[in-house]
From TrEMBL:
<feature type="domain" description="T6SS immunity protein Tdi1 C-terminal">
    <location>
        <begin position="54"/>
        <end position="126"/>
    </location>
</feature>
<dbReference type="Pfam" id="PF08906">
    <property type="entry name" value="T6SS_Tdi1_C"/>
</dbReference>
<protein>
    <recommendedName>
        <fullName>T6SS immunity protein Tdi1 C-terminal domain-containing protein</fullName>
    </recommendedName>
</protein>
<dbReference type="InterPro" id="IPR015002">
    <property type="entry name" value="T6SS_Tdi1_C"/>
</dbReference>
Length: 147
């Protein structure tokens, strides 16, 4: 399954119909063009997949926005992750073990590596499960070890 199929399977409930990943960062954030030539940002650490530009012109403007670029590159966090966990192998990303939207800290103690496919699936599944909860709702995570 290619990455756009994985996005559509894991995040399609948001309304996205991914056709191309146009940018990605070291934390698995993706900028995605959809079937209507709109642009979305998948932000796994916040369990979000949101429309960020309605067309190419808006997308180009977004890519020149300094605040967006600071948030996008996550430079300080990437540097800490690289120093502690090492360079990423092909197909792997850093990620917050407990997503920020569930109270996870943006701290090296909460950062590991994962394949991009697993990150898309995991974040999409968690986001779908909590999408109807009110802000501040308590969430209990049950972790099951793979054999």
């Amino acid at each position: 399954m290619d990455v756009t199929e994985k996005i559509n399977t894991s995040w399609g409930w948001t309304g996205i119909e991914a056709v191309e990943v146009v940018r990605e960062n070291d934390f698995g954030n993706l900028l995605i063009r959809d079937s209507s030539s709109r642009f979305w940002r998948l932000c796994p650490e916040e369990l979000e997949c949101e429309l960020v530009a309605a067309n190419k012109q808006q997308f180009d403007e977004l890519l020149s926005d300094k605040e967006f670029l600071i948030d996008w590159h996550m430079t300080a966090l990437v540097e800490v992750a690289k120093k502690t966990l090492g360079e990423l192998d092909e197909g792997r990303k850093y990620y917050l073990v407990i997503p920020g939207s569930l109270g996870g800290e943006y701290d090296i103690s909460n950062i590991k590596t994962i394949t991009l496919d697993e990150l898309i699936s995991l974040s999409g599944s968690l986001a779908h499960q909590i999408k109807d909860l009110p802000p501040g709702a308590k969430v209990k995570l049950n972790v099951v070890k793979k054999n």
